[in-house]
Structure formats: C-alpha cells, structure tokens
Design a protein that fits this description.
This protein has 9 helices and 15 strands. Helices cover 29% and strands 17% of the residues. It is of the alpha+beta class and 374 residues long. Keywords: Aminoacyl-tRNA synthetase, ATP-binding, Ligase, Nucleotide-binding, Protein biosynthesis.
Length: 374
C-alpha cells in the first residue's frame, strides 16, 4: 500500500496561516449569504400572575401597583393552552425581585434572577443589580392561585409540589402541560392518587382533582393526548421512572413539534413548528411573556462564580434552519456508518438550533464582514 503523510508537527489555525484563514473566511461568508447567521437561542418566560392572597412574606406588596408573577421558563410557548398547574420544588429557595422595567415583582431562583439582571429585564440602568424583596421556599408558595396565559382553565391554576424540579435549569418554576409532557402527566397523576402527599404540603383536593389534561395538539401515531398515551404504552408507573420518562419526553417532543397540528386557539389547524414563533410573539406583545436566556449547561469561571448570559451582540449559526436540516438528513442517509452513530447524529439534528460562533478576544480567524469578532 502506498501512503503519503505530512510529518510536520504543527498546523496553525489563525490568520498567521493565510491559506487556512482564507478557507475559514470563505466558510462563514457562504453561511452568511445562505441566511444562517441569526439571533441568540431563546427561552420564553411565561408570566403566571398570583391572583389569590399573597404569602405572608409578601404582604407588604400592593399587587394593584406591583403585580406579583411566578416566571416559568419554557421552550414550548405554543403548548400554554394546556396548562393545568405550576410546579415548584418544596425546598428550592426563590427570590422575589423587583423589576423597575415592568413595575412588577418576579419570583424565580437567584441564579435565574442574576441572568435576568444582565438582560435588561429588571433595572436596565443597573446591570447585574438585584432588588430582592423576600426569599421564600417552594413550600411557602404552594397553593397559590395563578392566572395562566392561554390556559383553558380561566378560573386559575395552582402551584403544586414536584420533586424533580431543578434549581440549576430555567427559573425553578415549571408550568405544567400534562397532555404533551410525560413528566407533567406522571407527576399530576401521582398527586391525584396520593392523598397523603397532598396533605403533607397543604394541597386541597380542589387544587388538583378537577384539572385534567387538555387536548391541544394532534400528534401522528399518538393522538390528541400524546403524553398519557406514551405513559400507558411504556407502562410508566410514577414520576420516579426517570429513564423511561426521558425516553417518553423525547418521543412526544419529536413527533409533536415536527408533525403535530394545533387543535385550539388562534392558530388552530396549523403545524406546531410553524405556529411556535407566532404564539411566542403574541404572548410577548400582550405582556404575558418575555424573552430570557441562560447557559445551556452550568458554566463556572476561574474564580468559582457561575457564568450568566449578558444581553449583547453575538453571531450565531442557524442549525435550526429546516432547509439545512433537510439537506443534512439526505447526506446522513448516504453515509455508511454504524446504526448507533447514525441514530445519535439523527437525534442531534432534531434538537440542534442556534449555535454561537464568535468572540471578541483570543486567537482565530476574524469574521469577514465584522472584524471586531473572531
């Protein structure tokens, strides 16, 4: 066998190497011309207004002047029609923070509050500043009646306990859509079936028993209540079946988002993936939601501080573009690789969205259309 090898022990990937540098610049110019440079990844904060008596620690607040909201972070604003309740963890600490921008009090975890403080959601004149009114545990917030935007339960939904809520992701506040979220359905079913669990946290029957999953999306192969259907098919017994629930979640999300059709609301009859951004914008325009960003995974600085997302300019690659995804799937189908690798790549194509591709310091190739960025 004839083998040709380059035995040089170095390869420069900065502008010191003009050939490689030109190649990278060409790549990014091509991507930009294809429309793949977009805005940052977004979460939607759903504003769940407290419409019952405020907790004792918040009695000094006048809700007529400063309404109080629990903020639930979601990637699926189009499912808000199916809200039946709001989940909190009993031992997580939540901060009530004052927002000068919105003249409101928001309840979230301290970590989420710090992210918000750098995204002009609290006091734009003081980035990073937190005006904390009170600190409460989830248990101190159970049983509150809330107004859920778009929810068919117009009389209100309630804050309930869920032991799998994480303080390290989102806001620590989770809005529950048991029709299309297996975790939510399993937890709501457990709460309905376990009176002792309800009594432990002072949850009355009327806060739980009347609330049933709502048919909001027709999902091919899973019907109008996909989460309960998959739970039954997989014989998931409780909210503690974490591995099965994760598998169920991925299945319901994949089929529902890409092939599902809305059954309710202004966009009834539209594909879910087409309606998502429209519904998000409508919620924001009606002051019932806001855009929020955070690191995908925990990021710790060299000094030991948790990193936050700051509102600033950034260039992204739009890996969520459907035309690109379609071309990538065609290319994947032609690859001669093991099934495990193919399945992993296919799953990645499903969730892959916007990806940051630039920074303002260090070594590398400069953006050909904006040389302040590498």
């Amino acid at each position: 066998m004839d083998l040709q090898a380059d035995w040089r022990r170095s390869f420069l990937t900065t502008d010191v190497n003009p050939y490689y540098d030109s190649f990278v610049r060409w790549q990014f110019l091509h991507l930009k011309q294809s429309g793949l440079g977009v805005v940052p990844m977004e979460y939607t904060l759903i504003k769940l207004q407290i419409v019952s008596k405020l907790p004792k620690k918040l009695e000094m607040i006048d809700p007529a002047k400063e309404p109080v909201f629990l903020l639930a972070a979601t990637l699926r604003p189009e499912t808000m029609y199916g809200q039946t309740n709001c989940w909190l963890h009993p031992t997580i600490e939540y901060v009530a923070i004052r927002s000068k921008r919105y003249s409101s009090i928001f309840l979230v975890t301290r970590r989420a509050a710090l992210n918000m403080a750098y995204q002009d959601l609290l006091d734009p004149a003081r980035p990073g500043h937190l005006d904390i009114v009170a600190t409460l545990t989830g248990e101190e917030l159970f049983g509150l009646r809330l107004k859920g935007p778009l929810s068919v339960y117009k009389e209100g939904i309630y804050t309930l306990p869920m032991l799998s809520v994480s303080a390290a992701k989102g806001t620590g506040v989770v809005t529950s859509v048991p029709s299309d979220a297996p975790d939510d359905f399993a937890s709501l079913r457990d709460l309905k079936n376990k009176q002792a669990f309800r009594e432990k946290y002072g949850i009355s029957d009327e806060m739980v028993l009347p609330f049933e999953p709502v048919e909001i999306i027709e999902t091919p192969g899973l019907g109008r209540l996909p989460a309960p259907t998959v739970i039954e098919q997989m014989k998931i017994q409780s909210q503690n079946d974490r591995e099965k629930l994760q598998e169920a979640k991925e299945k319901v999300y994949r089929l529902g988002f890409y092939d599902g059709v809305l059954l309710v609301g202004k966009h009834k009859g539209e594909k879910v993936q087409n309606a998502k951004k429209l519904i998000q914008k409508e919620l924001i325009d009606s002051n019932e939601a806001m855009i929020y960003q955070e690191p995908e995974k925990p990021v710790v600085t060299r000094s030991g501080d948790d990193a936050v997302v700051c509102l600033c300019n950034q260039w992204y690659l739009d890996y969520g573009d459907e035309a690109w995804k379609a071309a990538a799937r065609v290319a994947l189908a032609k690859l001669n690789i093991h099934d495990e690798a193919r399945n992993n790549m296919d799953a990645t194509l499903d969730w892959l969205r916007e990806h940051a591709c630039s920074r303002t310091y260090g070594l590398g190739t400069r953006m050909p259309w904006d040389d302040k960025w590498l």
